[in-house]
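Researcher: We plan to redesign the surface later, but first we want a full-length starting point. Tokens attached.
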């Protein structure tokens, strides 16, 4: 069975903020032609849209293109209203409310499975979170990383998720990663990246680089040999093999669309065709 892996669609950067479904679908069609490839199933690792209406309408659209679509949430998907530009006619008081809304709406759409702390058909998924442990310099610390996230980072400013309690958020997703990986899915999806994907050199000295990653070796070791971990968040396409401490091999995939001015394939010379993968 062939799966197409993709993430970081940011559809509302390519389509107008509209409540007219026919207008949106016109843009969705051209977006699909530019960025997607035929397969039996599609796995989307988060960041479909900031706007809740665009998000749900895109799920309805993409469900018509594949036999099954698996989705996990991204950090942009769960933001509150952003400067009056997104979600202006529906109020979510918390990110939890927005997540619950998406799950309810996705459950109504045939062929779509929104995997937030769920597993279906051997595929597990959740948004994930950073663990604040990556140190970009000797002077960095978990405490300073958490303060920067809370006061200056996009998520800390635009989420209202678990009251934006850094420790609580990571504790939650650490537990979710452990639980899901112990079920040994053939495909694990998250928006945030295991550090085992490796960090591009241009981000290593950035004080905000740790907000994309978590240390995932212990979860990867729970998976079977030949498993796939798909992630997103960074707008750099990556495809590599990781061998865990037990000698098992895992395929790591990140295929972001990114923003209109970006070229995610440039850094490592990849092509979107390389993200159509045969999975038994």
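Model: Full-length starting sequence:
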């Amino acid at each position: 069975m062939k799966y197409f892996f993709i993430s970081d669609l940011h559809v509302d950067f390519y389509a107008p903020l509209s409540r007219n479904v026919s207008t949106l679908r016109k843009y969705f069609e051209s977006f699909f032609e530019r960025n997607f490839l035929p397969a039996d199933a599609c796995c989307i690792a988060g960041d479909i849209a900031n706007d809740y209406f665009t998000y749900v309408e895109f799920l309805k659209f993409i469900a018509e293109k594949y036999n099954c679509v698996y989705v996990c949430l991204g950090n942009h998907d769960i933001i509150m209203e952003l400067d009056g530009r997104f979600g202006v006619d529906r109020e979510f008081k918390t990110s939890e409310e927005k997540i619950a809304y998406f799950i309810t709406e996705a459950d109504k759409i045939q062929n779509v499975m929104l995997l937030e702390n769920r597993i279906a058909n051997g595929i597990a998924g959740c948004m994930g979170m950073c663990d604040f442990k990556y140190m970009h310099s000797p002077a960095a610390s978990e405490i300073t990383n958490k303060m920067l996230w809370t006061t200056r980072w996009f998520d800390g400013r635009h989420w209202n998720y678990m009251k934006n309690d850094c420790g609580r958020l990571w504790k939650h997703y650490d537990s979710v990663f452990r639980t899901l990986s112990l079920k040994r899915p053939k495909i694990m999806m998250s928006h945030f990246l295991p550090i085992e994907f490796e960090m591009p050199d241009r981000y290593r000295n950035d004080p905000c680089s740790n907000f994309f990653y978590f240390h995932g070796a212990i979860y990867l070791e729970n998976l079977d040999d030949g498993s796939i971990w798909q992630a997103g968040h960074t707008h750099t396409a990556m495809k590599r093999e990781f061998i865990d401490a037990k000698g098992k091999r895992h395929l790591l995939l990140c295929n972001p669309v990114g923003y209109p001015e970006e070229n995610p394939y440039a850094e490592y010379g990849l092509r979107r065709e390389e993200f159509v993968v045969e999975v038994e």
